[in-house]
Amino acid sequence: MTLFQTYGTHIKRLLYKSLICLLCLPAALSGQKTITEAEALQIVRERHPAVLSSNAAIRSAQVLRSGAARNWESAEVFHNIAADPDLGMFGTSTFGVTQTFPAARQTRANRGLYEQQSRLHEAERNLVQHQLSREVRDIFQHLSYLDEKRNRLVALDSLYQQTARIAESRFRNGDVASDERLAARDQAARIRLELETIGHETTFDREVLAQFLGENEVLTPVIAPFNRRSFSMADTARIREGAFAQVDAGKVALSDASIAVEKARRAPQMTAGLNVQYLANGALYPGYAVGVRLPLAQQNLRARASASAATAEAARAQLEATVRSQQMELAHLLHEVEKYEILLEYYEKEGKVFATELRRSAFQRYAAGESDFIDWVQSAERALRIEMEYLDNLHMLNRTILEIEMLF
Prior knowledge:
Layout: H1 3-30, E1 33-35, H2 37-47, H3 49-67, E2 76-84, E3 88-100, H4 104-172, H5 178-213, E4 219-221, H6 243-264, E5 269-279, E6 284-293, H7 298-367, H8 373-406
Parallel strand pairs: 1-4
Antiparallel strand pairs: 2-3, 3-5, 5-6
């Protein structure tokens, strides 16, 4: 099978598939759900399993803070039997109950610990939402990029179709050889193949988006124009307020609260109880007991407090390490932004006009018979390469800005 026959067969299949798609388009669209980027972000921030998990952890800490900060120990119920010189070996029995009351200092420390746990879980949820949002925005960004590439290729495909018709007409008139006609068809087929590839990528992105959002039905994203993203340099000073740093800062606060809990273990606790003494002769004598529980094993408590202090020190060091790492990452990303902006500036000032004029004039010369097919194809490919490099650089710039926004 010749190259022309191969591409001809492929184009026939592509046209057949396109016809089927057009016939089924109304029914397909009626069964598809359109979704904007804002709607997708809201879904993923509210209903993603990772977010629901963080919400449950927050509720757990809040319940502990409100209902478990005052740590009541189990009451002690006792029965004592003692000998009595007048009533015999089992002459006296004492029944009673004793309760230890939690110290106010311990209660305050526990409440602070659970409060910091809740705040840490909130910071972790914010980080999860930040990361999930980045994934959604990246998918919509890629869809916009693919849509703009498709638009450029569709316009070029129209020119190549005209080229193929011109070459066919000249071949019939005997002005050109058969190889030029076949080459013109080959160029048109190549553009169609690239368009089909973009279609597959777009379908894949839509499927990934639906799975990411937990949707069982087919989604049709509302694609925004492929424009340059921007960010404020003033925001770059907020590294310590970023989602990553806030998680580490929450761990520092939780460690400090743990130190307070360990120190509060040394606080004295009041005990009180009621009892009744029963004598073998049938007499009953009620009574009560009041006492103080003092932690005498101080070495154990000091060791626990020292361990908590070391954990807090490690948390502070990790916070500083995270901030420094993100500052270095920010510097690298800002360098990347500068690089892409230089490349984009060339296209916007010179490349765009040059590519448009190069393609227009080359096609006009070929259509007028002033140049051959090779010159026209070379000029068209050069113009396409300039435009595609611009789209690639713009796509990378937008992705870099997304990475910068992840830092704060």
